[in-house]
Design a protein that fits this description.
alpha+beta; six-stranded antiparallel β-sheet; Transferase(Phosphotransferase), domain 1; globular; Phosphorylase Kinase, domain 1; 335 residues; 16% strand; three-stranded antiparallel β-sheet; 12 helices
């Protein structure tokens, strides 16, 4: 017989598990709908600190309503276990897709990645930093809609002090930013870095940094430059590689500031490349921002626009030049 939580949520089958919690597909007996229930493991449910973290995850996610974020419906405690009730998202997580299919074609990867940026960007506008972005926390439906989940260690921007330091490092070592690895304050740019790691993995099938220990991984994120993604996958254009390397910069101020900004850059790049305005070959000359480079490439594809500008200028000059003799003739007639 299936277990029922709070006389309402029937646990039907297990969907997955992590170090802290187990996720079940379940049925809301009151509303008669399929849901997902995330249950904190009993060993953590007994800890006041983990209880508070779990509650914070529920509060943070419950305040976010966006098509690319998993919706939280309820939070409860039953049989000495805390649980979160969420919308059920059919499909699988992005990590499973990457294990089976990576590297993904650039158009396919871009379509998924832009949606992830939209969800995280909405959280940034709501004043939250996710702090644990990785493909495991991105669910992909059969119709290729991305839903970001697991705000378990999200930080409210209002609570982040710029000079804070901590010995407790939160996040996943393969994906966290250099500042997280150093125990410094996270920011939206920290999520942008993690998104860059995800995009790198989507397009190459590899992580930019790999090592056997979290400490060594943290060192690589803080000090070592990532390998060129184009050397792993030649299908990555120079302009796209520049976007990836920009968001993997060690300095937060050198990256795009928010996931929204990164998403807009990738949208612009995708549109330009799809229309043939970005070609293989040497990357354009500075300025280094890929968006500006794309605009320059677009203008070089439309030289008629420059000739039209020159023609209009000549016509204006002729018109003004013709008016000068006319006004001189009027002046001498009056005098």
């Amino acid at each position: 017989m299936s277990e029922i939580l709070n006389d309402r949520y029937r646990l039907d089958n297990q969907l997955g598990e992590g170090g802290m919690a187990i996720v079940f597909q379940a049925t809301d007996l009151m509303l008669e709908r399929t849901i997902a229930v995330k249950i904190l493991r009993k060993t953590f449910s007994a800890s006041a600190a983990f209880q508070e973290r779990f509650k914070e995850e529920a509060r943070a996610a419950a305040n976010l309503t966006h098509p690319n974020i998993v919706t939280v419906h309820d939070f409860g405690f039953d049989k000495n276990r805390l649980f979160i009730v969420m919308e059920h998202v059919p499909g699988t997580d992005l990590k499973a897709i990457l294990k089976d299919q990576a590297p993904l074609p650039v158009p396919h990867a871009s379509r998924l990645f832009i949606q992830a940026c939209a969800g995280i960007g909405y959280a940034h506008r709501a004043g939250l930093v996710h702090c644990d972005i990785k493909p495991h926390n991105m669910l992909v439906t059969p119709d290729f809609r991305v839903k970001v989940t697991d705000f378990g260690i999200a930080r409210a921007l209002a609570s982040v002090k710029p000079d804070e330091r901590t010995n407790a490092i939160w996040g996943s070592p393969a994906y966290f930013s250099p500042e997280q690895a150093a125990g410094r304050a996270p920011s939206p740019a920290s999520d942008v870095y993690s998104l860059g790691v995800v995009l790198y993995e989507m397009l190459t099938g590899e992580l930019p940094f790999m090592d056997s220990t979290p400490q060594d991984l943290a060192h690589l994120h803080r000090y070592e430059p990532p390998p060129s993604p184009r050397h792993i996958n030649p299908d990555i254009s120079p302009a796209l590689e520049e976007i990836i390397l920009k968001v993997l910069n060690k300095e937060p101020s050198a990256r795009y500031r928010t996931a929204d900004q990164l998403g807009r850059i990738v949208i612009s790049f995708t549109e330009l490349e799809t229309n043939g305005y970005l070609e293989e070959g040497s990357p354009p000359t500075p300025p280094p921002d890929p968006a500006l480079q794309a605009i320059q490439a677009l203008e070089s594809k439309n030289p008629n626009r420059n000739w039209l500008t020159v023609l209009l200028g000549l016509l204006a000059l002729i018109a003004v030049g013709g008016l000068i003799p006319f006004w001189l003739w009027v002046y001498f007639q009056i005098n």
